[in-house]
User: Fold this.
Amino acid sequence: MTKYETVIGLEIHAELLTKSKMFCGCRVVDSVEAPPNSAVCPVCLGMPGMLPVINKRAIEYAMRVGLALHCTIQSHNVFARKNYFYPDLPKAYQISQYELPLAMGGYQDIEYEPDQVKRIGITRVHMEEDTGKLTHTENGGGSLVDFNRSGVPLLEIVSEPDLRSVKEARAFATKVRQVLRYLNVNSGDMEKGVIRFEANISIRPMGETELGTRTEIKNLNSFRAMTDSIEYEVLRQAAVLDAGKKVVQDTMGWSESRRKTFSQRGKEEAHDYRYFPEPDLPPLSIEESWIDEIREQLPEMPDAKVERYTKELGLSGYEARVLTDDRLVAEWFETAVGSGGDASAISNWMTNVLFGLMNEHKEEIGEIKVSPKNLVELITLIDDGVINSTTAKEVLSEMFMTGQSAAGIVDDKGLAQISGEAEISTIISQVLVDNPEQVGAYLDGKESLRGWFVGQVMRATQGKANPSVVNRVLAAALDKLKTDGI
Assistant:
């Protein structure tokens, strides 16, 4: 029996996909590929006398997220100075929000097990500017700083301490990332650090209601790092309590190579940061009409799509979740359905065949040569009996590589299905004549050979024979042999 209960709260930091930075006109560049310190100016470098100006588009993107997470947008919110000294923070303070954030009091439902849904509270969604990026050289030779990322609009989403396991934490982080991508405000590319996690973790004896002393693990840039570090920290805290000691509130890092958390510094409280209103920025007032305008622009969110796909299109919950995981995939699917295709058939061909081709060739849905309309055309050829499903897979593979239409490939390669009973009957007769030993065994009671005969007919026709016609004509031929003899 588990001795302790785990309590987890997540902070999710997401860079916003604006063209310029949060408080200056510098362009936002790829922090991995762009030359270091190539997108900087006196404002984001913290030069004396420089004044920030709020990026309106960043505020709109943040409002999208707040509304999508069922938060209340605050009509009056204030930017604050968060004071701390670190080499990647050129001003020695960060412009953030504290007492009066942009959005508060929301929630996000997660499915942490099949059909197991839990509602996780959202404490706040607030805006700040990102810091620069440090690169530590080997053998203690120093550190290099790149300020390209300094000043990029950064959104922080803070959950309530409602998560009770690593599985729930991963489900929540995955869901929020999906929401951000659906809103087109963040790419979700964790390899480039545009979304990062921080986990607040404590444990308490089962049945207790008072929260234990927490530690915070900073700068987790992958789901694996997040889950592995939480698992380790829970075990570490349990070992401390089992030894009769107390957990010390601390800020931790995660060492991937050593597979353990390590202390970075004593955990700061709000007063350590000496928050006070940013004197160079006025309070931000958001009118209700602006909120309504942003709300009307929100796309249909993943959970709503899943419900619609299952209720209106008749898909299973699993199919609906797979197809709505990525917004572009969902849009591709809906375009195909809108072209007159059957939703269930389209889902089947996408999830079982098309996704396999995409994985094999490492292509995203927006990069493939197959159009939604052409997939519907392929399915129609199957329904009309022009080709069978085996041939259709071959045709789809060719479509994927060339972008040619299904009908064009079928015509060029002579892949049209053989459905004429007379032609199929002739082929079956030849198969039976060529395999007298198997025919004899069948007539002696080995009924399983019927499938073998079907395979021989399909081989003889290079897979182009209509399976239903083959089975029907073959059954009649074999029954006649039983009656008349060989």
